[in-house]
Amino acid sequence: MYADRINALPPYLFAAIDESKSRMLAKGVDVIDLGVGDPDQPTPSHIVESMCQAVRDPATHRYPSYTGMLEFRKAAAKWCQESRDIDIDPVNQTLTLIGSKEGVAHIPLAFINPDDVVLCPDPGYPVYKIGTQFAGGEPFTMPLLEENGFLPDLDAIPADMLARAKMMFLNYPNNPTSATADGSFFKEVVEFAKDNDLIVVHDNAYSEMVYEGYKAPSFLNVNGAMEVGIELYSLSKTYNMTGWRLGFAVGNADLIKGLGKVKSNIDSGAFDAIQMAGITALTDSQQCVSDMNRIYEKRRDALLKGLQGIGLDVKPPKATFYVWAPVPNGYDSMGFSQLLLEEAGIVATPGVGFGQHGEGYIRFALTQSVDRINEAVARMEKLRL
Ligand SMILES: Cc1ncc(COP(=O)(O)O)c(C=O)c1O
């Protein structure tokens, strides 16, 4: 019944976890969900207010422009200038997205022909590989290993794959490992991309979720990056707006144009009222972002203390709201997450769900209060691992 591209999708590894979670909830267990990367706090009220006003204006009720409102793209370009010191032309180098996932899923359709190879990080956000497959391309795994700081080893990519490779996805600050990359790595990537004729798509969805003064750099800050790549930004995690579906792509004008061509034939752009709320989010005070980061930092510290207390070797992440922890000896990632759920009522995501190189790890999302995290830790202590 299904098309080959659907039949070729990888097995849904979280099905067993979802099933156990439903079983536990049905039994009345007080489940602590640290699984999904979805902020628990509401969208800041000034952004909600801005949407309420915009939606009352009938001008927002019509089809939006597929490239996005120029005012939103100007706000995005200004935000890039102020937060990242990158000069972006809002007309030719900026495109509104219906969430960054949309950009990830659609960009291979614009540039990948059947049998082209796309270099995808593993562990990684699953849509890099799936978007590639939907476009008829072949994902090639770049392992993100702890000994390399969870950065890909570009020299390890085999020459035959490199010859067929046309695109590379990167994502720092990283989901799921929470690793960060600095300018020198991005510089290496730009040179590599130029030498091998690669398009670079840097997914910067966690750009603002940072701790202790860390600032996540833009890939586009590196000399020459604008010639080879684009960067995707998201309002989802930064402003607790996952449900609103808003993000933007910036970078090389030809790449932006290609992505725009796909969009103009598939979707009709993001709702104007949402883009107007997005303008408020990007141009108003950014205090709400630092307030959220302080909340996540306290949660991070509570979880880390607990995990280290039960003997897991976890380092404090500088960015993202994920804690990527090695599973205890004697477990694989699926087995340990089943144990956490069935014996402690805690949902966490098995690393293998992000690819084979995620095996041996588990991801906790900091989407519960410090009290709930402390309760989760107390339950883990009782497991006597
Ligand atoms: C690495 C990464 N990229 C992109 C997304 C998609 O974000 P959105 O479509 O909400 O902007 C996510 C969501 O979890 C993610 O983890």
From TrEMBL:
GO terms for biological process: lysine biosynthetic process via diaminopimelate. Its cofactor is pyridoxal 5'-phosphate. One of its GO terms (molecular function) is pyridoxal phosphate binding. PROSITE patterns: AA_TRANSFER_CLASS_1 (PS00105). CDD domains: AAT_like (cd00609). It comes from the Archaea. Residues 30-379 form the Aminotransferase class I/classII large domain. Its EC number is 2.6.1.-. Keywords: Aminotransferase, Transferase. The keyword Transferase applies. Pfam families: Aminotran_1_2. PANTHER family: AMINO ACID AMINOTRANSFERASE (PTHR42832), L-GLUTAMINE--4-(METHYLSULFANYL)-2-OXOBUTANOATE AMINOTRANSFERASE (PTHR42832:SF3). Belongs to the class-I pyridoxal-phosphate-dependent aminotransferase family. This is Aminotransferase.
